[in-house]
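Researcher: I'd like a structural prediction for the single chain below. Treat it as a standalone chain; there are no partners to consider.
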Amino acid sequence: MAKYDPETALIVVDMQNDFADPEGSLYVRGGEEVVPLVNREIELARDAGATVVYTQDWHPEHTPHFARDGGIWPVHCVQGSWGAEFHPQLEVEGEVVRKGVGGEDGYSGFSTRHPESGEERPTELEDLLRRHQIRRVVVAGLATDYCVKETVIDAAERGFEVALLSEAVRAVELEPGDSQRAMDDIGAAGATVVMLG
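Model: Treating it as a single chain, here is the predicted structure.
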């Protein structure tokens, strides 16, 4: 069970229509089932004085991230579109960190990577957490094998104690076994996998 206090932040990863709605362009199977679970955690976190932060894919219309421009993904989470909006049932009360804004790959909430040069740049997430004097992060959202995994690993590398809410994530599974491999990578990074309270 995740424990929340003023030195803990709940990071809600990419709970957006294109991932969490069956009509979304990059729907993650079962993504909508995560919304009420995450809402409950948001309430628990807020009641305990914890910080709640949301990450949001926010891509331009054309980016090397998309298949039509040389990448691997269908067009998704285009700035200002329905697909980029948070799921309508998600409680959004906290700061939002947008990623992929300039056309970069934005898997982790902590950093973006230029898809051609490989250059990495930090987002404002780490500064935000340090400002709130956060020591520990709890992560939930979509998708286990991409943005959740990368956010967890980056948080651990930056010295945060990390817990992943195992029931409040879902995987893309481009290849069979991707979800389990992601969970193995998460464990290897030193994160703890916890059940919902």
